[in-house]
Design brief:
It is a single chain. The chain contains five helices and seven strands. By secondary structure, the chain is an alpha/beta fold. It has a single domain, classed as Glycerol-3-phosphate (1)-acyltransferase, CATH 3.40.1130.10. The protein has a seven-stranded mixed β-sheet with strand order 1-7-6-2-5-3-4, with helices on both faces. α2 links the parallel β3 and β4.
């Protein structure tokens, strides 16, 4: 990432140095995940669509700890793997919008709330800005080489309003998840707005 573009990482000190954490990342471009993996202060395990695990990418993605998920069904193996990352004190990366979009956190799925509640893990909002800038691209699918990309980490928070890492750790009822999702969306949208003001994007 650093050899091809010019990442500027802001707020990395906000990421807890140890223990389970979920990075909630906006998603406007396919480069967002790799950019975060290459610049985050801790190793990140993303839930990645199974279609990406083909050819030489399959062993590579597995070797760096990425998790395969079938987005067309309830993938219980992927859910178990993701909760395992948190149970062992790792960092789980999630695109809460489910797929690439405007990258504005406008449409959240309940998956993020589920993992945060079941895994008893604080959420760190992450805004990746600049990957979807189309100006001056040599390759249409990628930002221009040496283009600046901002990766902005926000303050950790609990999906349920408890002290991060001190919640009930498992009571993922529909009411709890619905309330948590509303809270998460507000916090992520607030962080994205702050990140845009900070970076001028």
């Amino acid at each position: 990432m650093y050899s091809l573009w010019r990442p500027r990482v802001l707020g990395a000190w906000r990421v807890p140095a140890a223990g389970p954490v979920i990075f909630a990342v906006n998603h406007a471009h396919g480069l967002d995940g790799p950019m975060l993996m290459g610049t985050a202060p801790r190793p990140v395990h993303f839930l990645i669509k199974k279609e990406a695990f083909v050819g030489p990418l399959d062993p590579f993605l597995r070797s760096i700890g990425q998790l395969k998920v079938d987005r067309q069904s309830v993938d219980r193996a992927a859910i178990t793997d993701a909760l395992g990352v948190l149970r062992h004190g790792g960092v789980l990366g999630i695109f809460p919008e489910g797929t690439r979009g405007e990258g504005d956190f406008a449409s959240l799925r309940a998956g993020l709330a589920y993992f945060a509640v079941r895994g008893n893990a604080p959420i760190v909002p992450v805004a990746v800005l600049g990957t979807s800038d189309r100006r001056g691209r040599a390759i249409a699918a990628l930002p221009p080489l040496r283009h600046r990309v901002d990766v902005v980490f926000g303050p950790a928070f609990s999906a349920t309003g408890d002290t991060p890492g001190q919640g009930s750790g498992g009571r993922a009822t529909r009411a709890v998840l619905d309330t948590a999702t509303v809270r998460i969306q507000a916090r992520l949208s607030e962080h994205l707005a702050d990140a845009r003001r900070l970076t001028g994007r």
